Amino acid sequence: MSILIVDDYEVNIYQLQFLLNSHHYTVVSAVNGAEALQMAQKDPPELIISDILMPVMDGFSLCREWMKDARLREIPFMFYTATYTDERDREFALKLGAVSFFTKPTEPDVMIEAVESALKQKIDPHQPVSEETLPEETGFLRGYNEALIRKLEDKMNQVEQINLELQKDITERKMIEQALQTSQSLLGQTEELGRIGGWELDIATFRLSWTDTIFNIYEIDTRFTPTLDQSLEYYTSESRPVIESAVKRAIAPGESFDVVVNINTAKNNLRTIHVIGRADHEQGKVVGFYQDITDYKRAEDERAKLEAQLQQMQRMESVGRLAGGVAHDFNNMLGVILGHTEIVLEQLDPSEPLYEDIEEIQKAATRSAELTRQLLTFARKQTVAPKVMSLNDTITGMLKMLNRMIGENINLVWHPKLDVWPLYMDPSQIDQLLANLCVNARDAIDDTGVITIETGNRTFDDEFCASNPEFNIGQFVKISVNDTGCGMSREVQAHIFEPFFTTKAVGQGTGLGLATVYGIVKQNNGFINVYSEPHHGTTFSIYIPRYAGATGSDSKCDAAKPVVPGQETVLIVEDEMAILRLVTKMLQQLGYHVLMAGTPGDAIRIAEEHANEIDLLITDVIMPEMNGCELSKLLSAKYNNMKCLYMSGYTADVITNRGELYDGVHFVQKPFTVAELAAKLRVALTSD
């Protein structure tokens, strides 16, 4: 069996290796935690025995990282230390996940017995780890700091004891000097590892004494002897009153303090410092410790930021799913209204009184259908027809329309970058993006102002995205829209992409414009960045992945067809009875022979009764029993000549890839007119 020994002292490794080899164990060794972790991840041992006090990465930190690794945490972890002997150190080690804790030296037979026992405790790798197994980061830091502080206090006490012994017995000078050097070395290592430094303040003179670590934290020459007032100058304006008050309370009432503050070092670097202090009135001093926790604080802030972004993404996804479901049901109802109004209008003379009323119903339903299309875009359920396109050419063709849209009081500035990479997306989506962003910018400008549209190419690498997690790695085409309007607060920015969220007065906006922008960007694998400050305008920067294939036209749109009647037999499958009756009526009006089915089961039965008579299957996509795609595959396998046309309130993944129809799939989106249905029918029936 392979055992990994981790110790920075060669003699300790040799002694333990000799003992284990004599009992037929294979031994490998590392001199610090970082080296051990790297070795174990490449070739996991059966057991690890680690010292605690080591350079680069100590034993506590190694154990913490070990238990985070799903593959390594099944391997028993033993501590074997000569410096951390306090019972609280043992409790902390076991809390981190160690199976045992021994102090040096230990009798050989006791150590071998402990090794054999640990090897029997091997953890099942498939057993889930409880929340208590790995302490929270703050809990780990607290326990870790307490252990370091106890060790510092122990070493300081050892130094004082050695000094007393020096005064009592001069004959033991050399031995005591050696012990003092050892203690100071251990103290220095502990300070360096934990970024902890000791300090004391002379209450009479207000002179400070610092260890070297504190000079390094402040980035000050060690020859400088600071006073209290001089040290206070390094604290930020928010932190100075905090530390001043804490020191005053320590001097007068004698209160201990424990605060986290910020300083600007001599080289103007901002650092976060954990300061602990207590009064020692017998010595006329206030003593304590500093710890530089800048990296810990930065990691905590970054984690909190990532958690907030994850929660926002999950919230947007949930809202998107809800919006898609609502739009689907709403489209079914609108389809019935629009279909029947179209049929009624064809039968009425425009001079009849009812004609205008029916026409108003049709207009209202059409506007409602547009709102559902925006909801579907946000939910990324809108069908698209992407092609390779030039972004600059597309935007140039929109400028006249955008100028009319924003009004004469606002100046539209167009800054296209030369040689912008091509895109593969639906050009109508670019129209939607810019129309919504420009209208949003127009509404943010009170009177006169400027809206600027820019394009460009951007490449983001790993290093940039590591410090800017809201960006993605890769090559992107950038579209930015900047305005000189009123800007937005951070609170407003947190909600701007949510459907129906608006800061406009009632009746002046639907709250779907930016939600539509968000849906289009996400559907095209892009991302969007917003920068805004109140009274200083807003910039929306959209990044869409560049198209790296061959350029050229790639339109997959069906050509527009005139309304052509038909004589073929059509089987229509729809679980919504109102839609089923309406589409049947439309088909009969166009001259088709229609067979109706309310469920996939009915459709299968009817197809068997009319074997080889059915020319086309029209089916809803989402239905009980089975979806439209499954039904089509089942029937086409039996009846080779049967074509298929799908219909739905929104596209589903069974017939699309991120909103783009799979090759050979024919689809008509609800609600549709008789003309739209007729055109789609002829395309489906005449396809190969």
Q: What does this protein structure show overall?
A:
- 45% of the residues lie in helices and 20% in strands.
- It is an alpha/beta fold and 688 residues long.
- A five-stranded parallel beta sheet has the order 2-1-3-4-5, sandwiched between helices. Strands 7-6-10-9-8 form a five-stranded antiparallel beta sheet, with helices on both faces. A five-stranded mixed beta sheet has the order 12-14-15-17-16.
- Helix 15 packs antiparallel against helix 18 (513-523).
Summarize this entry quickly:
By secondary structure, the protein is α/β, with parallel strands linked by helices. The chain contains 22 helices and 24 strands. A hairpin with a 4-residue loop joins strand 9 and strand 10.
Assign a percent range to the helix content. 40-55%
The fraction of residues in strands falls at 15-25%
Unreliable sequence segments: 129-133, 552-561
Looking at how many chains there are and whether they match, the oligomeric state comes to single chain
**Number of DSSP-assigned strands:** 24
Largest beta-sheet characterization? 5 strands, parallel
Structural class by sheet pairing and helices: alpha/beta
Number of helices: 22
Distance between the termini: 67 Å
Strand order of the largest sheet: 2-1-3-4-5
How large is the radius of gyration? 37 Å
Mean residue pLDDT: 81
Shape call? elongated
